[in-house]
Amino acid sequence: MKKIIAIAIILMSMGCKQSQKVTNNDMTKTKSEQTAKATPFIWEGANLYFLLTDRFNNADTSNDLNFNRTKTPGKLRGFEGGDLKGVTQKINEGYFTDLGINALWMTPIVEQIHDGTDEGTGVSYGFHGYWAKDWTNLDPNFGTMEDLKALVHAAHSKGIRVLLDAVVNHTGPVTEKDPVWPDEWVRTNPQCAYDNYENTVTCTLVKNLPDIKTESNDEVELPPQLVEKWKAEGRYEQEVDELDAFFKRTGYPRAPRFYIMKWLSDYITDFGIDGYRVDTVKHTEAYVWQEFREICDAAFVEFKRNNPDKVLDDNGFYLVGEVYNYGISAEKAFDFGDKKVNYFDKAFNSLINFESKWNVAQQTKEQVFKRYSDVLHSGLKGYGLLNYLSSHDDGQPFDPERKKPFETGTLLLLTPGTSQVYYGDESARSLKIEGTQGDATLRSNMNWEAIANDKKTKTILAHWQKLGQFRANHPAVGAGKHQMLTEVPYVFSRMYSKGDFKDEVVIVLDAKKGRKIVDVFNVFKDGTNLRDAYSNKQVTVENGKVTIDSEFSIALFEKI
After folding, report:
1. Which of 24, 75, 175, 330 is the most buried (most CB within 10 A)?
2. What are the start and end residues of each CATH 3.20.20.80 domain in the chain?
3. What are the catalytic residues?
């Protein structure tokens, strides 16, 4: 990969977060807006937006067709045109800032296999990004290295961290245009049975998805198809020189996994990305992720050393893992049946919580909020959870019919932990697309037209924006300790402190509309002026209570 140094010029103070959007007509700034720059960014309470790069926004139609990908795909199984420029456009327009997003995760953007496959669902291309052909290059359907550099610059200038998606476990499928990698690199059988540790790790996930031999320490040569490709592109010598320097510096063997880790770490040193979401974690030996952690950390230190003017804060590199079916109930130990593995150990900061959608559907808000807070401040203290209610490959989302978009926003954004907003959650993008098969129905194009023109969609979006901005401005929401104050109406506090920083909020849910009296005792002292970030009304604490008259059943109280 050609070394390109990201040119992001950080426009915010070190460690700052975005403030709420203020129009020119606003004469008085809120407490959130006045102090946002002093608010530290906390991964454990971040508001993270997850999008399929190909399905979010198409800002450059000139790159919509590459490598003669002209076969007619199954419904929503081909490239639709979304690209990095489209994401950057929305960053610059303030879409994510208005939504309170302070971290952005995109599906893999490396070059995908050139051909399509057909496994009974119609022709499928690698639009999703998980079928790598060349980890050192971006797929032209997504954009160029310059486009990625511009995206990271734009995001960082607004206090938004950038996560790319790392795939170490497998290559893309084998096709006529995409030959299998050498036997020293991959296995093509057996297919995983998933009934124990060995049958989950040393096998192929599905048919025709070659499995990288991540357990091997044997030195291997570059795949001949990659050598041929790089020579045709005029960058073979440069890539080999970089690999030679990497292996000499680190002392790692030239084993398959270390080639891939080197290629992925280049995106850290070249662009200053802030983290990786790591794919198919449990299908690779646990120690591999400890090695990946070391390589990523070293790359992040190198980037910060070489680019002191682009350092956002003193947070380390962030790794969040996809351990399929991991949930909060497991705390640190994922159980394979015959073996338990702690993926937090010297590896991941956080794991995706596959349990959250069931918890919020089957338990009361207080049961969920208290349990999550208790676990995150005890068994998982120092680590995090990434909660979601819908995603790109989960066929059983919390609200498949999008009948409860307001409740979805409330539950997701107020549950302790890091929130994962799947693109279109905030606008009720349909998850039921006629004519699709399998997970394609979850991956429709972003519904920008509805956001622009549909009144109900705008109302839904406004709800997510208020909650999202409140979460972004207050680390206590996601990372603080939860305490119920009253059961009816349901009132609770969240408190967070780190060093000299202290954050306290009181939240009201399921209250009657109109005039309501809210207990805020033991949180805010008498005489304290508060603002309800939902209704934008101000109140003063008297006798441990506040009285507010609003048309909403929810209130988000913060100090002014």
Report:
1. 330
2. 44-474
3. 279, 322
Residue span(s) of the chain under CATH 2.60.40.1180 come to 483-559
| Helices 224-233/236-250 angle, 10° precision | 120
Say what angle helices 256-271 and 286-306 make with each other, to 10 degrees: 30
What is the bridge-based pairing of β-strands 529-532 and 186-187? unpaired
Residue 43 amino acid letter: W
What one-character DSSP code corresponds to residue 338? S
Mean pLDDT score, 235-239: 98
Give SS3 for 399. Answer: coil
Residue 418 pairs in a beta bridge with 386
Predicted model pTM: 0.93
How open is the CA angle 456-462-463, to the nearest 5 degrees? Answer: 95
451 in helix, strand or coil? Answer: helix
Q: How confident is the model at residue 37 (pLDDT cuts 50, 70, 90)?
A: low
Looking at residues 265-274, what average pLDDT do you find? Answer: 98
How much is the pLDDT for 121? 75
The three-point CA angle 544-550-554 to 5° equals: 75
Among residues of the chain, what percentage have pLDDT more than 70? 93
Contact assessment for residue 442 and residue 128, using Cβ atoms and an 8 Å cutoff: no
d(CA 281, CA 287): 11
330 alpha carbon, distance to own chain's centre? 21
Topology at the third CATH level for domain 483-559: Immunoglobulin-like (2.60.40)
User: Under CATH, which number does the domain 44-474 receive?
Assistant: 3.20.20.80
Q: Does 20 score more than 70 pLDDT?
A: no
Determine phi and psi for 235, rounding to 5 degrees.
-135, 20
